Amino acid sequence: MKSNSLIRLIFVMLIVACGSAAILGFVYDITKEPIKRANDAKELAAISEVIYEEFDNNPFQERTQIPLKKNKGQVTLYPARKDGKIRAVAIKTSSNKAFGGSIELIVGFFLDGTISGYKVISSKETPGLGSKVSEPKFSEQFIGIKPKRKTFKVKQDGGEIDAVTAATISSRAVIDAIQKAYDAYHKFSTRM
User: Fold this and answer.
1) Is 57 helix (H, G, I), strand (E, B) or coil?
2) Domain layout of the chain by residue ranges
3) Other C-beta atoms within 10 Å of 159: how many?
């Protein structure tokens, strides 16, 4: 009798597991597109925030992937055009060196390679500490500069950037992500 009840219990658990998997698959299918549209809208809004040049195209439709050096992934470049000419670019970049794991940014560049700004689009940084890399006090330091490897670091590492107090790791991650974006922009600009 015990073996029959064990078999029945295993069968019921198998049915519940299969039913749960089917329901999760169904919910994933119906929410996949709305989530993608919401993420795309978030990226488009960030692009508009970091590109100060006027543009008349949809940079999102013209995005291109730029591979990073040494097979370290890729970044996404969004050109902003006015009357068919590229006026500025935005680059989606990331760093896995953040305190909370990965941090994703959209970084804007003027055509001369100067940073026009950045916007954090995804982060798991500690609220009230690492999340302060999104605040103007920190982010405005980057506007108008071109990253140079010797000085594009936090002051604790001999650079020019004031780190967020108690969030040096998060500050370094932002700099790492922006440096990747700048390297990709430089690679792109030599082909323009």
Assistant:
1) coil
2) 50-189
3) 17
